[in-house]
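Kindly review this protein for my students:
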Amino acid sequence: MEGPGVVPRADPSEMPTPGPPAPPTPTPASPASLVSMDEFGRVDLRVAVVLAAERVAGADRLLSLEIDLGDERRTIVSGIAHFYEPEALVGRRIVVVANLQPARIRGVESRGMLLAAGGREPDQAFGLITVDDAIPPGARVS
């Protein structure tokens, strides 16, 4: 016994053609996520020169970097080993958060954080935030 269908049949000529996905609609920042100028001013961004770099023992993603901040040397640990060979970093001028609380990562005290952009997986684009060689180590970034 046949009767009318529960759902009417779609006309294939009226179906939308597949195309590229629509770009995501930007979501406005909620007031709770906005940072005041005073809060931003507390972050000490400075230029550092990488003096030495090596892999952290027992960690696939971590590199330990010895950096020069102009008036001091310190060590930072970063999860960039999938993107950079240690020797390729020596001499580069990077931007770091210099006033971050120290953290012990895999037994190494990290006293800062480098700034980078991009993905977290090896197949995604990734890059360090760097500055021209004319900018001296320790210079403030604003």
Remarks:
- The chain has a mean pLDDT of 88.
- The radius of gyration is 24 Å.
- Residues 45-128 form a domain with the OB fold (Dihydrolipoamide Acetyltransferase, E2P) fold (CATH 2.40.50.140).
- Residues 37-41 form the longest helix (5 residues).
